[in-house]
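Mods, move this if it's the wrong board.
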Amino acid sequence: MRRPTSAVPATPDPLWTAADVARFLNASQSYVYKAAEAGRLPCLRIGAMLRFDPARIRALVLGNATDPR
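Not the wrong board. Structure tokens:
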């Protein structure tokens, strides 16, 4: 019997927390939460949690992000 394949794509990096993003940006966690809620930082909402794709945060910092949402 074959097992069903996973529908979740493999990601090279685990998702970051707000604390991880704050450390990367050298900013406060409150800034990260406010910027994410305002749409200035791309994020994923999982229930009440915010998670961040490291590749998208790096691209944003490097000016390579075309659509931060």
